[in-house]
Design a protein that fits this description.
It is a single chain. The longest helix has 28 residues. The chain is α+β, with helices and mostly antiparallel strands.
Length: about 350
């Protein structure tokens, strides 16, 4: 028997009584890593809308609405907002469909076209978005450090079961300090923060459709390219990644934003690897926390690739050599067993 869902009942009443839409069906469309849920409402005329359910005690819909407006003004495709109930935390949105990039990237002949569209949209955001970025909170040292510290707390200690010595903590702190300083040397742009294959939708008229942008900040230029090309949900050969990155840098220069593209390709590639290391340190901690705190063990499947990205970057960056050695020695050999323990703990009894 399906347990009662008071918020779904309230959402359905809002659609039917307040908006007069009389939906024929309201079904789960997706959920994300927060408290937000998304429902697809099928309307009598055969059209559909997506409804965001963001419980006000946990989620503030204000940033979503504000940043949606900024991105729409830049000229990229984000869901149109049709109605809002700020008190209840409901937003009625354009339906961008149910085909994220991740579902089609491995189909023969699709990757180049999809990544081309995504990189062109990203160039638009970065080259036209200076005024919008100036309204966003900064992706500063405090935020970078707070994100990275999720790794020792949730991944190393909670997930892997490591007891960190004073020497371990000193090594980690030193690496984080140097990495944050290096990342902050990059030009500052509008940063989506999760510009990857689960948040880009394939659209019939071309795209991408961009979702899950509410945490945007003003930060390093290479961050969103890393989210896309070192995606924690799909892996590509390094040579292919570098080829796409060179194409992206060329588009950035051609758009009139050469000041964002570094002195040359080598410098931009270094920026890419540096901010990639920061992102993947954060993601290791987030995925472990989603499992242990939030009861979402599905993210365990993505920990090995995320760690591989981090180890690869550390091997390329002298300032992260010691941290890479430590992760290779202490973390990599323990990950498979830690994942197995976590899955066993999460299994129904």
């Amino acid at each position: 028997m399906t347990p009662p869902d008071p918020r779904l009942e309230s959402l359905t009443r809002w659609l039917a009584e307040d908006l007069g839409l009389r939906p024929q069906r309201v079904a789960v469309a997706s959920a994300d890593a927060s408290f937000r849920r998304y429902f697809r409402a099928s309307l009598p005329d055969g059209s559909t809308r997506v409804v965001m359910d963001a419980p006000p005690e946990h989620e503030d819909i204000g940033p979503y609405l504000r940043i949606a407006g900024l991105l729409r003004d830049i000229g990229v495709h984000v869901p149109a907002v049709h109605a809002v109930d700020e008190v209840s935390g409901f937003i009625l949105l354009e339906d961008l469909g149910s085909t994220p990039y991740l579902g089609v990237l491995r189909e023969a002949g699709r990757a180049d076209g999809l990544y081309g569209e995504a990189l062109r949209a990203l160039v638009a955001i970065q080259s036209r978005g200076a005024a919008a970025a100036a309204t966003l909170a900064p992706y500063d040292a405090a935020v970078l450090q707070r994100e990275m510290r999720l790794m020792p707390e949730w991944f190393a200690e909670r997930h892997l079961g490591l007891t960190l010595s004073a020497a371990d903590r000193g090594l980690i702190d030193d690496a984080f300090t140097r990495l944050a300083a290096a990342v902050l040397e990059q030009p500052v742009v509008f940063v989506h923060r999760d510009y990857h294959s689960r948040n880009l939708m394939v659209l019939p008229e071309g795209g991408p459709g961009i979702i899950d942008f509410q945490d945007a900040l003003a930060g390093p230029v290479a961050y969103d390219p890393v989210s896309l090309l070192k995606d924690c949900y799909i892996r590509w050969p390094r040579a292919q990644v570098e080829s796409w990155l060179r194409g992206y840098r060329g588009l950035l220069c051609a758009s009139g934003a050469a000041s964002l593209a570094g002195a040359d390709e080598d410098e931009f590639l270094r920026w890419f690897d540096l901010v990639g290391a920061q992102r993947h340190l954060k993601v290791l901690g987030i995925f472990a926390r989603l499992c242990w705190r939030d009861g979402k063990p599905g993210y365990l499947d993505d920990l090995p690739l995320t760690l591989d990205y981090l180890l690869d970057a550390a091997a390329r960056l002298p300032e992260l050599a010691e941290l890479g050695d430590w992760l290779r020695r202490e973390a990599a050999p323990r990950l498979a067993a830690a994942n197995a323990r976590a899955r066993a703990a999460a299994a129904p009894r």
